[in-house]
Amino acid sequence: MWPVFIQATALIFVYATCWYAIALFKKRNDVADIAWGPGYILICIFLLVTQSWSPMSLLLYILVSLWGVRLAIHIYSRNKNKTEDFRYRQWREAWGRHFYWRSYVQVFLLQGFILLIIISPVIFAAVKPETVWNGFTIAGLCCWITGFYFQAVGDHQLSVFVKQRKNKGDIMQTGLWKFSRHPNYFGELMMWWGIFIICIPIPGSLFFIVSPLTITGLLLFVSGIPMLEKKYAGNDMFRDYKKRTSVLIPMPPKKAGK
After folding, report:
1. What does the angle CA 195 – CA 12 – CA 222 come to, to the nearest 5 degrees?
2. CB-based burial of residue 169 (10 Å sphere; 0-12 exposed, 13-18 middle, 19+ buried)?
3. Does the structure show a pLDDT above 60 at 257?
4. Among 75, 164, 169, 217, which has the minimal tally of Cβ within 10 Å of its Cβ?
């Protein structure tokens, strides 16, 4: 696996550097969000071209590519004709004169490093062409399909709400968002756990649980839920919504006063 992983690392280094150049030209670092999904597709194309493939690896390439294409289109549509995302704008202000090198290292190169960790089960499966479909394949595929539904539908419902809401402080509380404060993140996690489950039968694959654990940790404790919910600190509507609605796993909302 290691020669393939080293080649993938070099490819992502070039990819991240190109997007950093685009960010400098556009004067907005949130293009990194658009680059996130296509980076995975690039690795899948690289593996498809350079490695022998099995039914399992081909399935993984298709699943990752479907996720990457949909996510990139969604983020591009969301950010189009808008100012830079508030998270990147805060970093721009906080980093001051160190902005350029910290952007390159802490946004683009770090994102590339995390990308390689998360896609590592797919790279591992690519060098095992003898692997065939089995019960874990079906279980992982069901998990992935469930996740894709929650992410795609959740993102769509939120996009429609944002376009139609009358007050900027209003909170999305209907559809899937009635049962989870972050159904799209729940979907994201389900998809990557599904991909890991598909890879479980490959000898030595359990090490690559680091992939779903990494994306879970990021969304739960770092750049996902904490940063988004901090944005709504002091919002009374969000405070009430938070009391009755599950943070991640979709569950029936609590009744008022409980």
Report:
1. 60
2. exposed
3. no
4. 164
